[in-house]
Amino acid sequence: MTTSVAIAGAAESDLGVTGKSVLGLQAQAIGRALEDAGLTLADVDGLATTGVSRFSATQVADYLGLRPAWTDSTFAGGSAFEMYVARAVQAIEAGQCSTVVISYGSNQRSARSRSLAGVVESHTPEAQFETPYGPLYPISYYAMAAQRYLHRYGGTREQLAEVAVAAREWALLNPAAFRHGTGPLSVADVVGAPMVSTPLTTADCCLVTDGGGAVVLTSLDRARDLRRPPVRVLGYGECTTNTSMTAVDDLTVTGAVESGRAAFARAGLTPADVDVAEVYDSFTITVVLTLEALGFCGRGEALDWIAGGRIRPGGDFPLDTSGGGLSYCHPGQYGVLLLVEAVRQLRGECDARQVAGAEIALAHGTGGILSTHATVLLGVDR
Amino acid sequence: MSTEVPGGGQVPDPDEVTAPWWDATRRRVLLVQRCAACGHAQHPPRALCTACGSPRDLGWSEATGDGVVDACTVVERAMPGFRPPYVVARVRLAEGVLLLSNVVAERPHDVGVGDTLRLDWRPLPDGRALPVFVLSQR
Fold first, then answer.
1. Can you state the angle between helices A284-294 and A157-171, rounded to 10 degrees?
2. What's A5-111+207-380's CATH class?
3. Which of the four pLDDT bands, split at 50, 70 and 90, describes residue B7?
4. Predicted-complex ipTM score
5. Do B75 and A125 make contact, defined as CB atoms within 8 angstroms?
6. Are A249 and B98 within 8 A, CB to CB?
7. Which of A95, A111, A185, A303 pairs with A291 at a CA distance of 20 to 30 A?
């Protein structure tokens, strides 16, 4: 049931505070990923991207001088890229195109384009029924999920902080991480950071940085003849649940339940098979909810499960090994960089943060306010 | 067109689906949309029932105004037009549906999951009002 498609190339753009343009960062990431794969622009006949403009894929195709036979600009926040992997696999297997680039770039930190209120679209129900009450978007929704979770299961903010502490430990091993040089983060640092929307402090929230990335997909057969070892797409699944803050009845159970179940079923794998996990960490609570939803531990168990160093370097569940959105890079829609890190781990390129012998990787994107959930399982070519 | 919220934000004009709900707020009545075909209650109002799909059986019932905090957060960062700290909450009405709202409390940090609430109103300059909540008992 698995797929016949592989990731043949992967790359980051410049990260952090770049002073570069959105399209400049996109082109840089795409150029590097194609070079990594040993391919050129002339090979690309499929393109998926988001966050550029209303016509995102069209815009980037124009910028690159391409006339793709297949595009996708599904707007689904940070999980869009994991969704694009599924669509790209289907397009390649159906013969609509042969080589797909999935890319993203953002200069949100340099451009100071991020707002606490998010983007309000006045024709949506949320503009009439939610925005007038002043929730920070998206933070207040995740804050309510965290509050509900801690209340239900009796957890503490200190336990939740472990997600951010572990992410920093990984970032200290990754020279590309925004927080690489800033030293370790303690639980006291996290809970003592300025409060944003209770119970989440600034240290429970992902970075706001520039950055981007790209991956190149083609058939496994073709990838085997290219420059880099192929990384197989083993499975995928997705679930879309809400735009409003009141549509989901139980804040502690996310659509990652369905996306994970579909991905593992397609791949013929179980959570126990995963050697390294790249799970979207927009906020500390996002990771806790996602780990439970994907089945790595039971409901209400995640805070105990991640304690004791399990998700830190050297632990038995390597999680967000780049340093994550919390300490590595968060350019607004971070999901493409989850894929880039998963590929690099499976190719054994991660130096100090390399997970020894990693053969199966999970990348899980979450977009909006726990709105969109997409899981991709990747594996080495055996 | 839209109406300024005192102390922050803007409330867009209603559309053909939401107009009865907003009109009721002028009389300080909180409506919940209900499907006559299947009995489902939903919020915000829509042009069809999300339970049975019927586009023609939706009506309105008056909420009692009793609610419970499903989840809440105290916003501590200043957004344009709002004065922190203030409580944003998911309020579960006695009728079963969830509303996003504010819990207006002297000590915002004391508001928690399960607190019982009663309806109050925040007037808008155009005569409509925003349903908000206050603690009914501790």
1. 90
2. alpha beta
3. very low
4. 0.95
5. no
6. yes
7. A185
> Where are the domains positioned within chain A?
5-111+207-380
- For residues A231 and A363, give the distance between their C-alpha atoms in angstroms, rounded to a whole number: 13
Q: Please report the pLDDT score of residue B8 as a whole number.
A: 52
pLDDT digits (tens, 9 = 90+) for A66-122: 999 999 999 999 999 999 999 999 999 999 999 999 999 999 999 988 888 888 889
Give the gap in angstroms from C-alpha A144 to the nearest C-alpha of chain B: 5
Mode of pairing for the β-strands spanning B129-135 and B116-123: antiparallel
Q: Which residue has the higher pLDDT, A124 or B7?
A: A124
**How many helices (DSSP H) and strands (DSSP E) are in chain B?**
1, 10
- A317, exposed or middle or buried, with CB in 10 Å at 0-12, 13-18, 19+? buried
What is the phi/psi pair of residue A240, to 5°? -115, 130
Q: Cβ of B105 under 8 Å from any chain A Cβ?
A: no
Distance CA A217, CA A82 (A): 12
Q: Which of A216, A210, A179, A222 is nearest to A343 (CA)?
A: A216
Q: Of how many residues is chain B composed? A: 138
| Beta carbons of A137 and A124 less than 8 angstroms apart | no
Chain B residue with the nearest C-alpha to that of A141: B73
Q: Which residue has the tokens 């000590």?
A: B107
Residue B1 pLDDT > 60: no
How does pLDDT run across B45-100, given as a tens digit for each residue? 999 999 999 999 999 999 999 999 999 999 999 888 899 999 999 999 999 999 99
- Residues of chain A whose pLDDT is less than 70? none
The domain ranges of chain B are 2-135
Contacts of B89 (CB under 8 A, 6+ apart): A144, B69, B70, B71, B72, B73, B100, B101, B102, B103, B111, B133
